[in-house]
Write a structure and sequence with these properties.
The structure holds two protein chains of two kinds.
Chain A (H helix, E strand, L loop, with lengths): L1 H15 L1 H11 L3 H4 L5 H40 L2 E4 L6 E4 L3 H7 L2 H35 L2 H16 L2 H11 L6 H8 L14 H28 L4 H9 L4 H12 L1 H16 L3 H4 L14 H11 L3 H33 L1
Antiparallel strand pairs in A: 1-2
Helix pairs in contact in A: 1-4, 4-16, 5-16, 6-10, 6-13, 7-10, 8-10, 10-13, 13-16, 15-16
Chain B lengths: L1 H20 L16 E7 L6 H16 L2 E7 L1 H14 L7 E5 L3 H6 L7 H6 L8 H6 L1 E2 L2 E2 L2 E13 H6 L8 H14 L13 H10 L5 E4 L2 E4 L4 H15 L13 H9 L5 E5 L2 H8 L7 E4 L11 E10 L5 H12 L1 H11 L2 E2 L2 H8 L7 H9 L1 E2 L5 H8 L2 H10 L5 H18 L2
Parallel strand pairs in B: 1-2, 1-3, 11-13
Antiparallel strand pairs in B: 3-11, 4-5, 6-9, 6-10, 6-11, 6-12, 7-8
Helix pairs in contact in B: 9-10, 11-12, 17-19, 18-19
The chains are: A mainly alpha, B alpha+beta.
């Protein structure tokens, strides 16, 4: 009975560390069989087989769903990126072109001078500002009484609930050259000449407006998640800190941040992924749909190649590049964070 | 099983009608008997401000004629091309039976094999001689016609008649006068845009390219080559963008406008004169009744008199290769001829695709219609008839060129050379 229980409690962890388990087992399995040809071998082998298959059996439904929804499209995009694809009635024809699309993509000046810098700098700015603003709002919410916390939460959730399309149009409207609120304000204080300024044609103001839009849309999620983390921190820690003479700044960096580091990890990774693949907010802005190549980001570039030029291969190659980029960032980020965690232990 | 029941039902009904009416209805051929069938129809949203009652009536008439039902699904211009492509990839089960297809999309869709070649059917119905030539040509590739021209539109110059009279401006007849008129308007009506040079409006710019005698691209031995950086084309682009960059007749905010924003500004009464489609005057008056009686139109003046050619665009009603294609053709015929064609043209302010119907419109002598009809019949132009040009449009090559000139990032020649390079890359890819 105890062994069975033991096995049950072991299997999930074994399944959780799937890649590791897969590495060690094939090496370990053949060893005992020839070394101890005892009558127990058959029973032992069966038990091992069950031990090996059960976690995968239990994981199978989830893995199948994930594979169908995530892996299959990913493989298809990967396949497309190696082809010249032509749409035909009832199913298109792909001609294998090898890595041509990647070669074209990686040697294009547009990618290095415009697309990648736009994507990366925009994402970095957005993630930084979203996390900072979200955390500040969370700290504020944490200090508020129940009623005000509810009111403020509802207000910021409204920003989050707003569809990206609607939000984008509101920001465009606010920054409308000459007639928009911000253009008028900036004109009134002599910052710009409204008649000759069009925010949307230059890279920097264009992305500044897009950043406002994305941060405004993204900070509520961070605020709510961080707030949930803050609520789990025992008050005693702060009391002890105060007794030791730590000021608010020190309490934040020495108590709050280390305690809810996993929460920051999650919101940063999610924000990074979201902000790297921003599409709607850029595409809908004047000039963002391809008429101003200075403001291309990877998402828009991929879309224009695939769905405007019908060059599906090139579009897919750009999409794969985006995926790899995100994967690399996420892996590096997670590794550094975990390493830091280990050192502290 | 279900199908057999339906078939039995049809047979039974046919039998009953045959006994009831004798030979009269027995002559119907089975292809156009649509009892129990439903045609899926894709129509673009926005052409007709309220298309629902129109299609309700058309569906009722069609049901009476063939017994088939019509299911209309409205599509957005901005996303339809992608949706069509996806459906075509999916095959007969995914595409609609009948769809409104923009003329510049026809080459792309026809090449995939999704559209039905209806040349013979048009001939049989005796319709081919009556079709507006430029429009018929737009949907005919290698002698095969892929649908029926449904409606067409063309852009000319729309202006504020009241302001012209007030400041004693004569409608311009050449480019010099156009500049002069716009300059006077800017001086006397400084709050209004004298002549919007809208960076996102491709078909505003093309009129001046054609007007200077230039071309977007030329075909030689079946191969297309861009001509947008030829001296004549560049002259046209330079004149058009110069209205904003040199003459300052169009403020910076207009640099990123598309035709939609120009229309919005008209509705707010912020424009004195602009390029505008034949569908715009009525829409403007509807949105801003104060402007009733204050609008007028003229064909786009030519460089030294005459007219500049302007894009003649429109929509086809095409049938897709589904099992209902014969029935679908009947519905196309119903909509593109006679009563329903005239009604659609009237409700949408577009021109019908048939000469006989177009003449009826022209005969009404409406001053807000006649200049457009003249432009359409005498100075209409079409864009290169190839799948590649659809891609050039979708990737915004011309707006990109205009916007880079307007924002001062490139000279006219540089921008035109870049556009020519972009175009040729797409032509080369599709060969």
């Amino acid at each position: 009975m105890t062994t069975v229980k033991n096995k049950h409690s072991k299997t999930p962890t074994g399944g959780g560390g799937a890649p590791e388990a897969g590495d060690t087992r094939p090496a370990g399995r053949p060893a005992p069989a020839p070394a101890h040809p005892t009558p127990d071998t058959a029973a032992l082998r069966r038990r091992r087989r069950i031990e090996l298959t059960r976690p995968w059996l239990l994981l199978a439904p989830a893995l199948l769903v994930l594979a169908g929804l995530l892996l299959w499209p990913l493989i298809q995009v990967g396949k497309l990126s190696l082809q010249d694809y032509e749409v035909k009635f009832g199913g298109g024809v792909g001609t294998f072109t090898g890595l041509d699309h990647y070669a074209d993509l990686l040697t294009s000046g547009l990618l290095w001078k415009t697309v990648l810098p736009n994507t990366v700098f925009f994402a970095v700015a957005c993630v930084g500002l979203t996390i900072a603003l979200g955390t500040l709002v969370a700290l504020l919410l944490n200090r508020l009484g129940t009623t005000w916390r509810l009111i403020c939460s509802v207000a910021i959730l409204a920003a989050w609930a707003m569809p990206a399309v609607t939000g984008t149009y509101v920001w465009i409207w606010l920054f409308q050259p000459q007639d928009g609120l911000f253009s008028q304000l900036a004109g009134a204080i002599g910052l710009i000449d409204p008649a000759t300024t069009n925010w949307f044609t230059e890279r920097l103001p264009f992305y500044a407006i897009a950043t406002l839009n994305v941060v405004h849309h993204g900070f509520p999620f961070v605020a709510i998640t961080v707030l949930a983390g803050l609520l789990t921190i025992p008050k005693e820690l702060y009391e002890a800190g105060m007794l030791d003479g730590a000021n608010a700044w020190q309490r934040f960096w020495k108590i709050t941040v280390p305690t809810i580091k996993p929460v920051f990890l999650v919101v940063t990774i999610l924000s990074t992924i979201w902000d790297f693949k921003v599409f709607t907010q850029i595409f809908l802005m004047p000039g963002g749909n391809g008429s101003n190549p200075d403001v291309y980001n990877l998402g828009v570039f991929s879309y224009i190649e695939a769905f405007a030029k019908n060059d599906y291969g090139m579009g897919s190659a750009a999409a794969v590049l985006l995926t790899l980029l995100l994967l690399a960032i996420t892996v590096v980020y997670i590794r550094t964070l975990f390493r830091q965690g280990e050192e502290e232990l | 099983m279900k199908r057999r029941v339906i078939a039995a039902g049809i047979a039974l009904t046919l039998g009953l009608t045959a006994t009831a009416c004798g030979e009269g209805s027995g002559g119907e051929n089975s292809a156009t008997d649509g009892k129990g069938k439903t045609l899926t129809v894709w129509i673009m949203e926005g052409t007709n401000p309220d298309a629902r009652p129109f299609f309700k009536e058309a569906a009722a008439a069609f049901k009476k004629k063939t017994g088939a039902n019509i299911k209309v699904e409205y599509q957005q211009w901005a996303t339809a091309q992608k949706k069509f492509t996806t459906a075509i990839e999916g095959g007969a089960g995914q595409v609609p039976d009948v769809a409104e297809v923009g003329t510049t999309w026809v080459p792309q869709f026809a090449e995939t094999g999704a559209l039905v070649d209806v040349t013979d059917k048009v001939e049989e119905s005796g319709l081919s001689d009556d079709l507006v030539e430029g429009l018929k040509d737009a949907g005919t590739l290698d002698g095969k016609q892929y649908g029926m021209p449904w409606y067409a539109g063309v852009r000319s110059v729309v202006y504020r008649k009241d302001l012209f009279e007030k400041h004693k401006i004569k409608p311009p007849t050449n480019w010099k006068e156009l500049t002069a008129a716009a300059k006077t308007l800017k001086e006397k009506e400084p709050d209004k845009v004298a002549f919007p040079v809208a960076g996102g409006a491709e078909m505003f710019a093309t009129a001046f390219i054609w007007g200077a005698g230039g071309e977007l691209a030329t075909e030689k031995d079946g191969k297309w080559k861009s001509a947008i950086n030829s001296p004549k084309s560049v002259e046209g682009i330079a004149y058009y963008t110069g209205l904003a960059t040199k003459e300052k007749l169009s403020p910076a905010k207009v640099n990123t406008w598309t035709e939609k924003e120009v229309g919005d500004a008209w509705n707010k009464g912020q424009i004195s004169m602009s390029i505008g489609g034949n569908w715009t005057p009525k829409a403007i008056i509807e949105a801003n009744p104060d402007l009733k009686g204050k609008l007028a139109a003229i064909p786009i003046p030519g460089q030294d008199g005459g007219m500049s050619r302007s894009f003649l665009g429109g929509s086809y009603l095409s049938t897709f290769n589904t099992e209902n294609k014969d029935l679908a053709w009947e519905f196309v015929k119903l909509l593109t001829t006679g009563k329903f064609a005239a009604k659609w043209a009237e409700q949408t302010n577009y021109f019908p695709g048939q000469n006989s119907e177009l003449e009826k419109v022209a005969a009404k002598n409406d001053p807000l219609v006649e200049p457009f009809a003249k432009q359409m019949l005498e100075a209409g132009a079409t864009v290169p008839k190839t799948k590649a040009y659809g891609e050039i449009q979708a990737s915004q090559v011309i707006p990109r060129m205009i916007q880079s000139i307007l924002s001062g990032k490139a000279s006219v020649q540089e921008a035109a050379d870049k556009a020519a390079k972009d175009m040729d890359a797409i032509f080369a890819k599709d060969e």
